[in-house]
Amino acid sequence: MPLADLLNNVNGLPTHALMVHFTVVVATGGTIGGLAYALVPPFRRWLSWPLLVTGVLSIVLGLVTPSTGEKLEARTEPSALLEKHTNLGDQMGTIMIAYGVILILAMLAVRYRRRGEAVAAGTVATPTAVDRIGGLPGEAPRAFPGQPQVAAAMTLLVLVFAVISGIWIYRTGEAGARSVWHDTPATAAPGHGDGDEGR
Q1: What is the pLDDT confidence band of residue 79, given thresholds at 50, 70 and 90?
Q2: Fewer Cβ within 10 Å of end Cβ, the chain: N or C?
């Protein structure tokens, strides 16, 4: 099946309606995981590999999901609500790609370490504040030159983009829901959904 068809329909359904669920799961996981990684250092050791995978998936979904949305938009009636959702969706795609790159670099920076001369010689330096911001708890500082500073900066970027991602997940999803369901009555129509009917 050609890629253009896959971006349009899957099993008779708009691809975007399916992809958006994967995107929400990955983006939400990246947001929660990123916040936990940055703010709770004891979690970093076991979060680093899942977040590395999340970073890769974020880049892929950040590229694919907006494309499927554009395919679906071309088949629907234009509206201001849909335009708002489309714009936020494009922004969300860009945020996911950027956040994905940051997650990958941050996880590699904190995992890729080599023993410095002092550690190799058996002298373990006391971790500094910079080490604590970006390092793994319980490990002596082991680094390529500048690794503690890089890891600390990347950890702070993970925190910032986790917050931004969480905000845009909500904004994009809310705009999408409004574009689809804005004309749905707030209450059940008479004769429908009344559990006491016929009693």
Answers
A1: confident
A2: C
Place of tokens 């050609």: 2
Element (H, E) at 134: helix 129-134
- Give bridge partners of residue 10 from the DSSP assignment: 13
39: amino acid identity, one letter: L
Residues 6+ apart with CB under 8 A from 97: 58, 59, 62, 63
Percentages helix, strand, coil for the chain (3-state, rounded to 5) are 70, 0, 25
DSSP 49-65: HHHHHHHHHHHHHHHHH
Which comes out higher in pLDDT, residue 2 or 161? 161
129 CA to centre of own chain: 28
Nearest to 23 by CA among 81, 63, 52: 63
Residues 6+ apart with CB under 8 A from 147: 109, 112, 113
pTM of the model: 0.80
pLDDT band at 112 (very low <50, low <70, confident <90, very high): low
Q: What is the DSSP letter of 182?
A: T
Name the residue type at position 109.
Answer: A
The number of beta carbons lying within 10 Å of the beta carbon of residue 102 is 21
Euclidean distance between CA atoms 148 and 21, whole angstroms: 37
Contacts of 38 (CB under 8 A, 6+ apart): 155, 156, 158, 159, 162
From residue 188, give the alpha-carbon distance in Å to each of 169, 179, 185, 196: 29, 20, 7, 13
